[in-house]
Write a structure and sequence with these properties.
The chain is built from 5 helices and 7 strands; from the N terminus they run H-H-H-E-H-E-E-E-E-H-E-E. It is an alpha+beta fold.
């Protein structure tokens, strides 16, 4: 987009060229509408970008989120919660050798005045716990392992809770945020 802006600035002297260039950009942007819509612009951007990453990595990515009653959640927290949750799921899926078994399923809806998000993904790696906290399996533990902690911190701002469960081949994170 920066390159396009530079070109527009250079074309500014000849208005007709600039207008034509801007119209072409608008047409291209209209062709790139998001396939998944949650009724929240930030969440749509995150979900659709992560969907592209999943497509590249042969991960079956299914999303069904109704975010219509969650306007009270700050953009920074939406980004923190969903980016970390999906990044962790993508990382776990890419560790699977069998590309046919890679999946991420995310559902989000209102249940009894609570916004509930459930994300489950395939996995092969062992989950290590210390004092009921998940420990990263990366060698640089100082720079890694902050995703779930960040999710919990954002969810707690809204008096919400995070629940984690896992089996040998599946990881499930559930988030509960009371609606205001």
């Amino acid at each position: 987009m920066n390159n396009h802006i530079i070109c527009i600035k250079k074309l500014y002297d000849s208005n007709d060229s600039a207008n034509s260039y801007i119209e072409n950009l608008e047409n291209e942007l209209n062709c790139c509408k998001y396939e998944i819509s949650t009724e929240n612009m930030i969440l749509d951007i995150i979900i659709n970008e992560k969907r592209n990453i999943c497509n590249i990595n042969n991960i079956d990515f299914q999303v069904d989120i109704n975010f219509s009653k969650c306007a009270f959640i700050d953009m920074i927290d939406i980004c923190t919660i969903f980016s970390n949750m999906i990044d962790n799921a993508i990382e776990a899926c890419t560790k699977l050798d069998n590309k046919n078994n890679r999946f991420i399923r995310i559902k989000g809806n209102m249940v009894n005045k609570i916004f509930v998000v459930k994300c489950e993904n395939s996995k092969i790696n062992q989950i290590k716990l210390r004092a009921d906290k998940i420990i990263t399996d990366k060698s640089d533990s100082f720079s890694h392992g902050l995703g779930i902690k960040s999710i919990k911190s954002s969810v707690q701002k809204y008096d919400g809770e995070v629940s984690i469960d896992f089996s040998e081949d599946k990881f499930i994170i559930q988030i509960y945020i009371p609606l205001i």
